[in-house]
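Letters spell out the chain; backbone shape is given numerically. Take this protein:
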Amino acid sequence: MRIGLLGGSFNPIHNAHLRIAGEAQEACGLGRIIFIPAADPPHKPLAGDVSFEARSHMVRMAIAGRPDFEMSAVEAERGGKSYSIDTITTLRKRFPDDELFFIIGGDSFLEIGSWHRYGEIFRACNLIVVERPGCPIVNPLASLPAVVRGAFTPDRETGRLMHESGTSIFFIAGSPLDLSSTEIRRLAATGADITRHVPPDVAAYISQQRIYHQCP
């Protein structure tokens, strides 16, 4: 089976995350998508100090009713910084007979050279890069760190980048929503209606628990 892996702080999960998952699933024929909330994000502190349990609960509510979507607490179970390569390695062992596709936004792809042991990610699984507003990938190969470019061959027909290990990086334009968790937290802190940006159950949970009432 082809399995998509979608990680993030999900603080909170919102409709753009769900759209990215759906469009990646359709474009690459994914049988399952696993949402992976970060336990301890390595690049920036978690805004509002929202617990892993609360963020995981919001993910579960957002994907309820979708048997092809599931959530994994692998990063909380492992402990330590939530490095993507460690998560992928763990899931590679859990699903040895499946093909893994790590789903990221175009903004993350442009910063992948700053990731921990990023070169190993390309060998460990396929990548699906989904366009994000304001982050066009004009030249995929040139967007990669120079030190790894020689390991890739562009496929002119499909636009993907093929790695020497046999994995590939796929690029999909999608239909991006200009949404950010930062803006949703800001709106929720003011008591504004966020039901257009997150699933209804998630909006209700945020309001009832006052999760972001002190967030900037």
